[in-house]
Write a structure and sequence with these properties.
By secondary structure, the protein is α+β, with helices and mostly antiparallel strands. Helix content is 36%, strand content 42%. It has helices at 2-17, 23-28, 50-63, 125-139; strands spanning 29-37, 45-48, 68-79, 82-94, 100-112, 115-123. The protein has a 6-stranded mixed beta sheet. The longest helix is centred in the first third of the chain and has 16 residues, at 2-17. The protein is globular and about 45 Å long.
Length: 143
Amino acid sequence: MYHWITGLRVRRLWRRVGTGDYRAAVAIAAPDVLFRFAGDTPLSVQARGREAFEAWFRDLFARLPGLRLTLRDVVVRGWPWNTTVVVRLDAAATLADGTAYRNEAVQWVRLRWGRMVSDEVLEDTQRLADALRRQAAATGPHS
């Protein structure tokens, strides 16, 4: 039952985050959450703390306005004091030059008593880097 309820909560959370309401994810993050977005792109980061996590989301949606993140699958394992959640996502946006951006990602999250203590995202970074270059060329450098 715990896994089913946690999966339901994750699906509800991603419906909000997927349309830009990233504060819903920040709200469940532990104050010292460890966040890592893998790769070598302007969005790649390893950061600690809720403020850094929120700043990353602000930057993401500033660089890719209209970005939609769609949950494809969720797997929940463990117990309330040490839960692992794995999520498969699709990312989509229309860039300023009119081209489509499509990508996919996997998110690996650890929860303790309902609080996100770590979040690691793996995405096709080459596809993301190309989209960010096209976006910057169409809109000017991100400030």
